[in-house]
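Weekly puzzle thread! Below is a chain. First person to post its structure in token form gets bragging rights.
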Amino acid sequence: MEIVRCNEGDYKTLAGIWERSVMATHNFLKEEDFNEIKAALIPDYFPNVNLYAIADNGVYTGFIGLIPDAIEMLFIDSDRRGQGYGSALIDFAKQRNATKVDVNEQNPSALNFYKAKGFRVISRDETDDAGRPYPILHLSL
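Winning reply:
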């Protein structure tokens, strides 16, 4: 298992991981919202974070997007969940001083994962950053 810095050449692979992960964990998303977010990944979201992938024998199994002091995104391929990749990425983020993360309230497995890693809920927004009806929990170490 190794963590590597990503670049534009990795975006398509990361978008595939994102899609499979979200399909497995975000059943609350309306199809049109899923498609809107998916369309924004490569042009809008990926270029605005420092992306790192976790690889197992050269195959990307998940990725994390970091900004100073926060985790902006963390996704593990749907068939690789529960195998320690997310934990390794959290440890990596903590080493880079990430102390905050946001999570969809309707994704209890993600919330429980972050709580198990020491994060606690500090506030809540009724909608996501685009105003969609998906409450967001703000967590901090």
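Puzzle host: Confirmed. Bonus trivia for everyone else. The radius of gyration is 14 Å.
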